[in-house]
């Protein structure tokens, strides 16, 4: 046994994610929510999709009813490996549309990029064949490239401010949890769930996935169509930060007026229209 095979046998298998919804018949759509949330993120979308699609919504690692493994660092690879294991367990026979919201868009794009390059199959033999993703739909993706790589000083300042804010939230637990409890009461149950229980998945996912991300290079490496849907009032998208991906040939942008980061009815209708197109 070579050193790589030995390493793989020593690593624990990634845990399966909780499949919160598996309903409808037709072409498969898999929904992956974002940080400090659950599959409830898509409550306005699922009823619109199930008449024509088999809709599968999962809870990402550490959130909702999915496991939160002891010692997990919640790196992008940790999230992707569990997503891959879960998709494989579903034994899907046809390509599917993969939809990610917020952090879920970073996880989904990384999954598709690793699948395209055969890396998921190499790591865990979790994907029996390549190119199972037929289309990517990213909703409210928090695209933050390193400020040092941004030429426009205004965009650089905006992205830098977001990253400093995230660093502040991670470093000030009591402040963050107190404000989170206020926000939670204002939103549909399950849409935002930052508590003591989800604190570790939250701060580690923020640090290792959102603040240190690969989404731009991952999108650039894909050959399938990529649709990006975002609200004009999305408070987690720095103005000008999406320019780098909207210039890519295989990316189509969809701006939804009067919508913030939450998938509300207006954005849900656009999302369904994009999937059906």
Descriptive key words:
277 residues, alpha/beta, Rossmann fold, seven-stranded mixed sheet, 11 helices, globular
Explain this structure to me?
- The chain has 277 residues and is α/β, with parallel strands linked by helices.
- 41% of the residues lie in helices and 14% in strands.
- It has a single domain, classed as 3-Layer(aba) Sandwich (Rossmann fold), CATH 3.40.50.
- The protein has helices spanning 3-10, 46-49, 76-89, 103-116, 119-124, 153-171, 173-186, 199-210, 215-221, 243-246, 265-276, and strands at residues 19-23, 28-32, 54-58, 96-101, 133-139, 226-231, 251-256.
- It has a seven-stranded mixed sheet, sandwiched between helices.
- The longest helix has 19 residues, at 153-171.
- The protein is globular and about 45 Å long.
- The relative contact order is 0.16.
State the shape: globular
Output the CATH topology.
Answer: Rossmann fold
CATH class: Alpha Beta
Corresponding CATH architecture: 3-Layer(aba) Sandwich
Structure summary, number of beta strands: 7
The strand order across the widest sheet is 1-3-2-4-5-6-7
H/E order of the elements?
A: HEEHEHEHHEHHHHEHEH
Number of domains: 1
Share in β-strands: 5-15%
Poorly predicted runs are 126-130
**What would the average pLDDT be, to the nearest integer?**
91
Rg calculated over all Cα atoms? 18 Å
| Helix share, percent | 40-55%
Major β-sheet profile: 7 strands, mixed
The H-level CATH homologous superfamily, spelled out, is Alpha/Beta hydrolase fold, catalytic domain
Number of helices: 11
Distance between the termini: 48 Å
Query: Structural class of the secondary elements?
Result: alpha/beta
